[in-house]
């Protein structure tokens, strides 16, 4: 039962917890030892719902009963759950299964984003190749034309063509970058990655920006592509710094790099015993509502002059490590969370 992502509780006839699996421990934020012997209905915002279901199961009014309820958590908001109550094969025991509705919605959203990312990646790669070939011809023709022109004024026009062709070439190269570089796997220390990114960003923003370290140094090394992870994290941190322009000018901009180990987590519709949880938190204005659901799409940017490729490339590199990036944003606090499975 500890390997299941659903929340499981085995109850005695009096409704006291006899067993709680790891997923239920994590959701409630309480240890198994604390839960065992406790009245399980007390963890519901409406205890009568579970009590009624248990009474019906005892007298065998039904084989199983399903209902929706809210599960109390000591230090967090209640979590809505779908509950299934059934009598166990062992006399006097009740089996209670709970599915967090927000978890199901999150998994559906992750699956949708993953499918969209794959479709976007294929579209971008094909489109970039189609643009690349005629672009070289346009630039070459402009250079030949410039050689034939004597008028300085006319040469300014050919220079515009060449400059814009180079700019588009650079954009195409960035679109194709994730597909060109091989995945070079080695041992990665995530804090070396964080320190590298931190130093690069502070060189770019030497004043007005504070980058706070909040590391869990017990996190083990894992197999991955160090260069790709540096680029992914750098893109996310630079995106945060660019959103902090006004606060940097005021001198109170803060970006926090936080590393933690997450246990028994589910993402990408797969259960992992351990995962790296890397947060990039800033105190900026937040992601605009208009693009909040599309920030990882290519060419979507919340600022003027942005290419809209930084977060797309970051998500691509993290997905190469079987992970994903999530974003939780409100005015004054934006949290990008990078999840990567650990051995």
Question: Can you offer a commentary on this structure?
Answer:
The protein has 343 residues and is an alpha+beta fold. The protein has three domains: 7-105, Beta-Lactamase, CATH 3.30.450.20; 106-180; 186-341, Histidine kinase-like ATPase, C-terminal domain (Heat Shock Protein 90), CATH 3.30.565. Helices cover 43% and strands 27% of the residues. It has helices spanning 22-28, 32-35, 47-58, 101-148, 152-180, 190-204, 226-243, 245-250, 310-319, and strands spanning 7-11, 17-20, 64-73, 76-87, 94-100, 186-188, 209-214, 222-224, 253-267, 270-282, 324-330, 333-341. The strands form three sheets. Strands 2-1-5-4-3 form a five-stranded antiparallel β-sheet. β9 and β10 form a beta hairpin. α4 packs antiparallel against α5 and α6 (190-204) crosses α7. The longest helix has 48 residues, at 101-148.
First and last CA, distance: 21 Å
Strand order of the largest sheet: 2-1-5-4-3
Q: If you consult CATH, what is the topology of the largest domain? A: Heat Shock Protein 90
- What is the string of SSEs from the N terminus onward? EEHHHEEEHHEHEEHHEEHEE
In short:
The chain is of the alpha+beta class and 343 residues long. The chain contains 9 helices and 12 strands. It comes from Acidovorax temperans.
């Amino acid at each position: 039962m500890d390997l299941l992502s659903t929340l499981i509780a085995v109850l005695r006839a009096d409704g006291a917890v006899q067993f709680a699996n790891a997923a239920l421990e994590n959701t409630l934020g309480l240890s198994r030892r604390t839960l065992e012997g406790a009245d399980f209905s007390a963890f519901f915002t409406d205890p009568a719902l579970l009590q009624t279901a248990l009474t019906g199961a005892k007298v065998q009014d039904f084989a199983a009963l399903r209902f929706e309820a809210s599960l109390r958590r000591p230090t967090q908001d209640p979590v809505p759950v779908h509950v299934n109550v059934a009598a166990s094969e062992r006399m006097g025991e009740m089996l209670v299964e709970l599915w967090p509705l927000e978890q199901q919605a999150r998994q559906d959203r992750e699956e949708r984003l993953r499918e969209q990312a794959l479709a976007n990646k294929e579209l971008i790669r094909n489109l970039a190749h189609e643009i690349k070939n005629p672009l070289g011809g346009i630039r070459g023709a402009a250079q030949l034309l410039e050689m034939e022109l004597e008028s300085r004024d006319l040469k300014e026009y050919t220079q515009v063509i060449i400059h814009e062709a180079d700019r588009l070439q650079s954009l195409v190269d960035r679109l194709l970058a994730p597909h060109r570089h091989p995945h070079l796997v080695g041992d990665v220390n995530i804090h070396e990655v964080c320190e590298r990114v931190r130093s690069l960003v502070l060189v770019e923003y030497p004043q007005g920006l504070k980058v706070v370290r909040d590391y869990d140094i017990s996190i083990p090394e894992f197999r991955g592509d160090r260069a790709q992870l540096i680029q992914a994290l750098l893109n996310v941190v630079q995106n945060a710094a660019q959103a902090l322009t006004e606060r940097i000018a005021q001198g109170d901009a803060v970006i926090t790099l936080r590393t933690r180990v997450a246990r028994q987590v589910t993402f990408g519709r797969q259960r992992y015993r351990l995962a790296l949880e890397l947060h990039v938190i800033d105190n900026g204005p937040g992601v605009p509502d208009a693009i909040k659901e599309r920030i990882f799409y290519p060419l979507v940017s919340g600022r003027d002059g942005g290419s809209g490729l930084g977060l797309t490339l970051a998500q691509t590199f993290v997905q190469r490590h079987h992970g994903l990036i999530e974003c939780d944003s409100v005015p004054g606090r934006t949290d990008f969370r990078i999840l990567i499975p650990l051995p």
